[in-house]
Amino acid sequence: MKKIAYDEYIQEATEALSKGAFLTVKTGDKVNTMTIGWGSIGYCWGKPVFMVMVRDSRYTYKLIEKSDEFTVSIPLKDQLKEELKFCGTKSGKDYDKFEECDLSIQAGQEVDTPIIKGCDLHYECKIKFKQVMNPDELNVEYDKKWYPQKDYHILYFGEIVGTYLDE
After folding, report:
1. N or C, where is the chain less crowded by C-beta within 10 Å?
2. In the chain, what percentage of residues exceed pLDDT 70?
3. What's the Cα-to-Cα distance from 136 to each of 56, 133, 143, 150, rounded to whole Å?
């Protein structure tokens, strides 16, 4: 693993994110990963941050609420498509996604939460702020399109404490 600046692959990360990335959370001895297609990398409070979104109906939500960190592992070369599909449609409450998908994890370098092997780019983050979406402040068209069930996201802003490229 080669340590890199958080913004060195920001364009590639943003493009790949729309195809799917793994958000991994660890609480105690429980580890779960889910597929995310939304998020953003930016700069707030004098620090680089990765903002991820999790609905409170997700199993990952129960874990991330008890954690102060997360990792995001991004495949840049269109690999792991089936694994991303499975992890985006099945719940960690019902399946051991690592076993089902034969996903391997690797210890984080700056956090206790692992990263997903086989991905090219990894972000290790410490949660600094979270915000429940306020539907009254959401664009009406977005509300209709993305939240027909009114299952709004919670936004988690994680300070990026490590960024790595799998060489």
Report:
1. C
2. 100
3. 18, 9, 9, 12
